[in-house]
Amino acid sequence: MKNPLDDIFDSFDRNIIFKDKTILQTKHRPEEILYRDEQIKQVASILAPVLRGERPSNLFLYGKTGTGKTLSIQFVRDELLRRFNKDSGFNLKIEYLNCKLKKISDTEYRILAELIKKLGGEVHQTGLPTQAVYAKFTELIDKEKQIVLLILDEIDQTTKKISDDFLYNLTRLNSELSNSQLSVIGISNDLTFLDEIDPRVRSSLSEEEIVFPPYNALQLQKILKERASGCFKEGVLDDGVIEKCSAYAAREHGDARRALDLLRIAGELAERDGSGKILISHLDEANNKIEKDKILDVITSEPKQHHFVLYSILRLNEERKNEPFFTGDVYNMYQSICQKNKMDILTQRRVSDIIQEFDMLGIINVNVISKGRGGRMREIKLAISKDIIGKAKELIENSI
Ligand SMILES: Nc1ncnc2c1ncn2[C@@H]1O[C@H](COP(=O)(O)OP(=O)(O)OP(=O)(O)O)[C@@H](O)[C@H]1O
Ligand SMILES: [Mg+2]
Predict the structure, then answer these.
(1) Tens digits of per-residue pLDDT, 207-230?
(2) What is the SS3 assignment for 359?
């Protein structure tokens, strides 16, 4: 008798679609970083003084998710370390820390402990007063003649969970150092992060600022083609697949990660079908799947307050038709929904954070609009397709 699983396993065995799937993974480092020459050169020229033993300015990189910030800074770091002359008479350390990693930025203690570990020191899990951990950190940096560059990726996480104190202390640390010097490179995809922190921290952190703009559809096409060539078997990509994939991701605020994910999932769906080609239909299905997963994720795993915020956005989207709406409108709607449901009302700042999370997830697009005199408004647009909007609304209504 024929085993019903044979077909399934056989098609995977034959591996008709992928040559090397790891190439589409986020952590894969492409050989060439396209369309970021300008930004990479700027970063390099700001950091170049370290090679002569001079402290570079603090640097702040920002841009929406998937615009190549992490990729670019890691490239520059590797190049600097490669060029650094070991006989320079001083040491150069460039440490990278992703503040979003689990637990790292939960407390000032934890993040300092992590940095100390990276610098080769040791600190017990708990027990010391924070002041003592700072002392240890300072001592570790200052024990030799060196320049330390700290790359704090997703730096907004530190102020969300801790407070501005950590960044304030960090940017003041130089005055306590006598042998060594410290610069901070902050990276964030939260475009309003700087607006919300202590002005002293802001000005010190952003001595230099570099913006990473979103990729447009044509640029995404080129990036995808480059990656796809090593990843897929010859001829498996049907005509127009790369183009449509780029168009989807361009709509999704020019997110290269999203484009790569879409293509990978489309490939997996084609493989599962036993189809020798990735078709447009696989791509549409992949896009639907990503959107659905994101919404479902919010609805099944996030707390009620998130549902209320999302629901407010869905309602406003319906009511306003083509009129734009802003964070403030969402907050008003959210308040009234909470009141109706006898729920506690979160602060406007917290609701802004939730809106930011939805933006990151690609459920909405937030556009920051300058209003003169430093004021800014955040316009919100839904970024998911019509049929999923209806489904999502229904699901939330049931859960409320
Ligand atoms: N110019 C590019 N050329 C090739 N691949 C790119 C380019 N830009 C981004 N990518 C790829 O897209 C993905 C996302 O890039 P990256 O992690 O640098 O984004 P990011 O700006 O740090 O986003 P986030 O704010 O979400 O951390 C990675 O897999 C990266 O390799
Ligand atoms: Mg990043």
Answers:
(1) 999 999 999 999 999 999 999 989
(2) helix
How many angstroms separate the alpha carbon of residue 206 from the centre of ligand 1? 22
339-358 CB burial, b ≥16 within 10 A, e <16: eeeeeebbeeeebbbbbbbb
From CA 54, how far away is CA 47, in angstroms rounded? 9
**Cα angle 99-103-108, degrees, rounded to a multiple of 5:** 70
- Tell me what percent of the residues of the chain surpass a pLDDT of 90: 60
The whole-angstrom separation of Cα 383 and Cα 12 is: 34
Closest listed residue to residue 133, CA positions, set 116, 158, 155: 116
Nearest Cα residue to 249 out of 259, 240, 264, 261: 259
Residues 6 or more apart in contact with residue 324 via CB below 8 angstroms: 379, 381
Taking the C-alpha atoms of residue 166 and residue 41, their distance in angstroms, rounded to an integer, is 30
Residue type (1 letter), 117? K
CB-ligand 1 contact for 189 (6 Å cutoff): yes
- Which residue owns the Cα nearest ligand 1 atom 27? 65
Q: How far apart are CA 212 and CA 58, in angstroms?
A: 17
Task: State the pLDDT at residue 383.
Answer: 84
Ligand nearest to the CA of 256: 1
Place of tokens 């002293």: 200
157 lines ligand 1 (CB under 6 A): no
- Alpha-carbon distance of 301 to 179, in angstroms, equals 49
pTM for this one? 0.85
d(CA 111, CA 100): 11
* CB 253 within 8 Å of CB 356: no
Alpha helices in 95-150 (DSSP H): 108-118, 130-142
As a whole number of angstroms, the distance between CA 76 and CA 44 comes to 6
Rg (CA), the chain: 24
Give per-residue burial for 177-196: e unless 16+ CB within 10 Å, then b. beebbbbbbbbbbbbbbbee
Q: How far apart are CA 113 and CA 352, in angstroms?
A: 30
Burial of 38 (0-12, 13-18, 19+ CB in 10 A): exposed
**Whose C-alpha lies nearest to ligand 1, atom 25?**
65
